[in-house]
Amino acid sequence: MLGAAGPVAEQTRSLFLLVCTILLFVAAPVLLLTPIFAWHYRLSNTKSAYRPQWGFNWPLEGFIWIPPAIIVVVLAVFLWRDTHRLDPYKPLASPYPPVEVQVVALDWKWLFIYPDEGVASVNELAFPADRPVHLSLTSGTVMQSFFVPQLAGQIYAMAGMTTQHNLAANKPGRFRGENTQFNGTGFQNQKFSVLAQSTDDHATWLSRARASGRTLDQGAYTALTARSTQTEPILFGAVSPGLFHAILAQNDPAMHVAHGHRPK
Amino acid sequence: MNDDSLRFLLFGRLNAQAFPFVRAWQNPNISELIGALAGALVVVGALALVALLTWKRWWRPLFRDWLTSLDHKKIGIMYIVIAGVMLSRALVEAVLMRAQQSLAVDAPGIVAPEHFAQLFSTHGTIMIFFMAMPFLTGLINYVVPLQIGARDVAFPLLNSISLMLTAGGASLVMISLAVGEFSTGGWSGYPPYTGKVFQPGVGPDYWIWAITLSSLGTTFSGINFVATIYKKRCPGMHLTCMPLFCWTALCTSILMIFAMPPLTLATALLALDRYLDFHFFTNDLGGNMMNYVNLFWLFGHPEVYILILPAFGVYSEVISAFSSKELYGYKSLAAATMVIGVLSFTVWLHHFFTMGQSADVNAFFGVATMTIAIPTGVKIYDWIWTMFRGEVRFTAPMLFSLAFIVTFVLGGLSGILLAIPPIDFVVHNTVFLVAHFHNVLIPGLLYGMIAGYMYWFPKAFGFRLSEVWGRIAFGFWVSGFYLAFMPLYVLGLGGMARRSQALFEPDYRPWLLIAIVGAFLLLAGLVSLFVQLWVSVRDREASRVPVGDPWDARSLEWSVSAPPPEYNFAIIPQVDRLDPFYWLKERKEAYRPARRYDAIVMPRNSWVGPLVGLAGAVCAFGLVWHIWWLTILAFVGVWAPVVARSFVRDVHRTIPASEVEATDRRWLDCAQATRPVPRELETEPANLGLARPFPAQVPA
Amino acid sequence: MSGPQLQHAGLNLLDTDEMEPAEAALGLYGFWIFLMSDAILFALLFAIYGTQLTATAGAPGPAAEFKLGPAFIETLILLTSSLTFGLASIALKYDRGRTGLVAWLLVTLVLGIVFLGFELDDFRTMFSDGATPDRSGFLSAFFALVPTHGLHVAAGCIWIMVMLVQVAVLGLDARVKLNLLKLGLFWHFLDIIWIAIFTVVYLQGTLT
Predict the structure, then answer these.
(1) B163/A153 Cα distance (integer angstroms)
(2) ipTM over the 0.85 cut-off
């Protein structure tokens, strides 16, 4: 979040700073009063008053209960507004249609399928920087958490279910993506690159993928599910249709396919 | 029958590979060697303990005076001993993890990924279930009956069983160092990762059964304390006359009763998945791991308040005693405690905002979470206003309490940030979260437990702890905390995932180096606690407080000798208001003999607790390694003593009135002969446990 | 009455009893809290069952597997056993001898065992249909919920046997009475759980 480079991350950062400012007013009295009272009423200070049987005062009680309650109400308003505004399921405003990407979490790598382009990649998420990205996520293994810190928040990927996510970049750039949910000995290596590209670069990237000659079919997918780390990205020039749904369906057709919610 | 099946019948899954020494021999790298060293420490430690007990001929006293005792005070002390041992192990593990992360920026470090995963799993599991829980249960056990004017808890035998189940769970975690391996699934053990498909080994099984033993013990403790507090209060001790520590103990116990069953169930269902191929949390055939996550946090969030509330109670006692003043806003504090107890069941979903719920659901639980900040804030202010117009003394427990107030506020604020779903999305599962919960649990739980230990130690053992070493420990614990965890906030905001064995961002290095310094300071804090104990025991003759009131305190536990007699009170006290001992002293009615002494009936020692605990641990070990004959035998062994005990009628022991009178008069004579000390000298040898009263009021 | 007041309707502690009513009431109070904790365990099992109802994953579902007839007979048996336990409690309170108490406890025990027999037979049928817990999330939830109750009933039966031995060996001293009262609470509690199981599992499973 420190190096926010996308609209979602930027809005989250301003919310973070706003809340921190409000919280300063919560912390300040405690941080000031504690040392002041403790020092002023120390035993060796014979000039301070001593009222051992004083233990209650109504106005003070009001002072103790009401301001925290008001602050919480104020924060709750911001919370409600921004939880809806920054709902990861909510499509991002943009003049262009979002890039559709299907994400499969594997041990210990990420598979990205671009259904509109018919290509796929491992450990490299590429998209044109001027378009937002809509992700549908599932897992081919244990639960994982998809996170690109500089662009947006994170969302879990679980087997047999889909979750959704939306993110975008302000301008072309290269960002680090990661899994944050521990999933075994390759966990720390499960990083991927996020490439927000200019239109030309993206076209080059697509043709490079197509030129790779690799096809992501069920067999290639099964090979990917082996528990291993993958340092170099892999590109696939073709994807067998409906693969994402086939992966979903491997884990119980009866349930969960429509998990989550549609944003209003 | 062939050899393999015979071996399985006898030893289950146990084989040579299970022993870290064998693994280190076959594959001698630094990670395996560390593992073997840890295993060796367990074995050597156990052997050294056995040798010491034999050499000193302490076996008989150990069993007679301690392990079979049903005295709530001894049980409380034994709980705290367990906590101390486990704290040492888990803190060393923490230092090892910090060392690994600080070395492993673009480098392999010293600990392999598998080993690192075990480290964070045992660290979390131990700190929560075998450090924090025994510590607070021990304090409650020791203090609450004394504070409410009772001779013991409601069910002394059940109390011993709870202790021994917890001890059984703790020893299982220790055994996992020397036999086999522990889970790598973290303290929360999320499936499907901890399911059979992904973790076929014994690790998660060790975790499941250790937790199960501990959660059963805790449930029984909760039942016991609730019955004690509701039913065993002395005459006149209305709920609103109880010291605040009793209120927090009551609330914690209620939470234990309601919150432990979800955990027991979550681990039991996970065990069904692993042992009998059920499909609760598997990926396939209709399993749904979200059920586990909900069950676990339905326990996990109230658990946070189970941990923190007793510490809040300690702070209330300590700040009031060392300010020589009535607690400000007693009713407010009691109400805030109960409100926190109720609210703690309404917020569990904030542990998984990122699971794809609708914004409405997330926002609801976010707001509910923030609501808890109100009663918590009220408590903080109540403590601050307790110091107002008091006479504050900066003894070690008070210093810990002041450090708590300041530090905990910061942890609370990061909690507010995490309660806001959009912010949670960017710091969830990062070390920001790690910093947050250490920031609430170290000041909010550990400082409180240490303060309580130092505050009540003279009551339990009859002499004060070294003040100098108390302050040294304080310095280390506080500076260590800030250095170890403030950098993690920064790293978390930068997106550093928690539980990472290796890192690839050079920018992280300086922050991680600061953190490892902090970790070493925390370790020094622990060492100074042990040095303090050793020095204090050595110099105990110069710090005895036989009269029993070294801090000029206010509640009933200080109105008896230090250490108190087995039956606590020669006659059950009669109280009429809050802070009864303060008012007795104020009215010059303290230290008076009773008109008439009666015989007192106390429970006899019992072997049931140790037997149940031992059989429980053996049963769990059999389950872990699939040694079915042992499991069945030990399961019978758990129940047999309980059933047998229900046939025993000679379970009480009567202490004659003459003995009670003689003991009481000896103590009263001692009090008569003792010179009261002013508060300025309370840490000096002159303090024999009799306080010179303050004037009732001093104008400014 | 000049003697200690009865603290619990079923408790028959006269002046001659060694145990103070307050002490007995404390034991019962603790047992009530234990039952509350146990009730939470069952509540959660019901909740899990609810979430897993549709997770049949191609294995037999509720409509195919649940037979209302046997379940109804089991209900009647268990309800009757609650009645007979109540009669045992009344015998404990008002009878001079132990004959009535022992007889009603024996009837209760037999009914408990018969109930378990019926239940095991149900499970056997389900297993022979291929409805085993490793087939689906739904069957897992079923085989966690219903057998947990069954295990409780089995534990209750063993407890009755232990109490029968205690009555024979120790007579009706205060602690035996107290244990019988706790056992009674436990037995009636299991009845309530069963009614919930009958409704949520069997009625819901067969009548929809």
Answers:
(1) 44
(2) yes
